[in-house]
């Protein structure tokens, strides 16, 4: 059941932040998001807004599963040329069972709306993420990691 706008506004910032923190833990193998925690040190308002609104209000909405949300985020950030953010969401996607081949297909799709330069940059960044995860032993979905 979705939240009506009145209910969402009635919730406290702390409730919304906790919902956002739960989203991160679900996507990030039970741990916090390092980029968000670093942001919290110097830009606490921005970190709180990200956690409460982007994650707690938008990301936690019903209607799409986490897999679909991650694929959409990877595509959007790749198309915008924001490869660092794309990699964060690609990592989440891999954590929840999206395959490397599926992520590659998303990058191929980016050539249509955003062009080859953005897709090539995204492919290079994604290749680096794959290599880093393989080296760290994180190249399997969360349930299959040692």
UniProtKB/TrEMBL annotation:
Phylogenetic classification of the source organism: Bacteria, Pseudomonadati, Pseudomonadota, Alphaproteobacteria, Hyphomicrobiales
Write down a Pfam family by its short name. Answer: CMD
By its UniProt entry, which InterPro entries does this protein fall under?
Answer: 4CMD/NDH-1_regulator, AhpD-like, CMD-like
Task: Using the record for this protein, list the coiled-coil segments as residue ranges, or answer none.
Answer: none
Give the signal peptide, or none. none
Give the source's domain of life in one word.
Bacteria
Example of a GO MF term: peroxiredoxin activity
| Protein's UniProt name | Carboxymuconolactone decarboxylase family protein
Q: Does the keyword Membrane apply?
A: no
Give the record's keywords alphabetically: Plasmid
Matching Gene3D superfamilies: AhpD-like (1.20.1290.10)
Q: Does the keyword Signal apply?
A: no
Task: Please state every residue range assigned to the domain named Carboxymuconolactone decarboxylase-like.
Answer: 46-124
